[in-house]
Amino acid sequence: MKTGDLPQNPNIRRLIDRRFDSFKTWSGKLEKQITHLRGKTPRQTGPEDVVLQNSEFETIPVDRYYDALEGPELDTLRASEEILLPEDKKWPFLLRFPISSFGICLGVSSQAIMWKTLATSASTKFLHLSLTINLILWYIAIALVVAVFSIYLLKVILYFEAVRREYYHPIRVNFFFAPWISLLFLALGVPPSVAKTLHPALWYIMMTPIFCLELKIYGQWMSGGQRRLSKVANPSNHLSVVGNFVGALLGASMGLKEGPIFFFAVGLAHYTVLFVTLYQRLPTNKTLPKELHPVFFLFVAAPSVASMAWAKLKGSFDNGSRIAYFIALFLYFSLAVRVNFFRGFKFSLAWWAYTFPMAGAAIATVKYSNEVTNVVTQALAVLLSAASTLTVSALLITTILHAFVLRDLFPNDIAIAISDRRPKPHRKWFNIRNLSSEYSKDIEHYLKFRDSEEKDFEASVKPPGSEAESV
């Protein structure tokens, strides 16, 4: 017998071939997904250089994010899941730099607007505030926007697949509006000493990317499928609506009419649907976390900015503006009194995006106090402004602490490294102990032979009777 006993057991041989080919395919795909910087091949990799290869990933359905991740921001891996990149090693900085970093720009630039409003409003003149604070905050905000924009642009160029995965993430996708909203904030908060008026062409340039994003996002909400609104609704969706109202406010400030009204109408329609969807918490909606979180302050952002935008469009803080403002004020206090619900959550950069709703409510209160000037409205304006400033200051200190002391501000971004398929339960394909010792030795020889990449199968199997001859 030339081929030994193993070929006479086709079931065992098929099992061996199937398992080995499956292992070879999987390991080859994983090796391509985990590569190195500077164009190194997979065989040249070292533990410190791990990157995500662009061409090896498929579009991940939204259900995979829900299945694989958990937490208020869908950034924590479930215990039953695995990721494509090594979790025990620190990844390159750009891979760890999330789109939610633009929340810092939102927080600081909104502070520049708030301090400009406090310094120039008639109802807060008793504070005797200088526009110097606005000027300093505005320059800091510009520096932050330039820095974050530059870093994320490098990520787009070098690790486009990681950016694409963030775009398909049901929560991260809303932060793609944050860069453009930050630019709108900078335009609204520009100090009078820098520019008294801005050219209307600037408004069209900044609103174009917001319009393009909305065509995509709102179309998905309406057209159904896995990314319909009832499926992906979460409080961070307010970011996609706030851009409309901020754009309307800036456009009206520049003297424009039709464009700001258009964006205000689009924002109002989608905010109404979003508000109802989030408020009633549909039983089929899996994205809303059970825990309350500072993300819920985004409920306050849209009506606050909408009240100011409508006042600018109409020329006065009329009943329409007051209705939107009172809605924002009620939501603000209904969340603020539940302090205990905001405890026990780890810090993340996404928290910065929850600061500009507080600044928006403070600015709207200052505008309202200009129309209804009394001790109550003035005190409320000062109180909300102080709360917003203290929150931003606390987050700034916390961010610096995590960045330079704890050095954990940018942990491995698990959300971009989940597998595109649900992991299969581990099953042993056969128990080698249950086989005879002769078959075990033959299989061991067979596997060693396959690993050596030889062509001749017979060379890996012992000839019959070899043991008898040796005895």
Automatic annotation (TrEMBL):
One GO term describing the cellular component: endomembrane system
Lineage: superkingdom: Eukaryota
Cell compartments where the protein resides: Cell membrane; Endomembrane system
Coiled-coil ranges per UniProt: none
TM annotation in the entry: 93-115, 135-154, 175-195, 201-218, 239-256, 262-280, 292-311, 323-342, 349-368, 380-406
Gene Ontology molecular functions: voltage-gated monoatomic anion channel activity
Alphabetic keyword roster: Cell membrane, Ion transport, Membrane, Transmembrane, Transmembrane helix, Transport
Entry membrane topology: Multi-pass membrane protein
Record InterPro entries: SLAC/SLAH, SLAC1/Mae1/Ssu1/TehA, Voltage-dep_anion_channel_sf
Listed Pfam families: SLAC1
GO BP field: intracellular monoatomic ion homeostasis
Family per similarity comment: Belongs to the SLAC1 S-type anion channel family.
PANTHER family cross-referenced by the UniProt entry: S-TYPE ANION CHANNEL SLAH3 (PTHR31269:SF2)
Protein name: S-type anion channel SLAH3
Phylogenetic classification of the source organism: Eukaryota, Viridiplantae, Streptophyta, Embryophyta, Tracheophyta
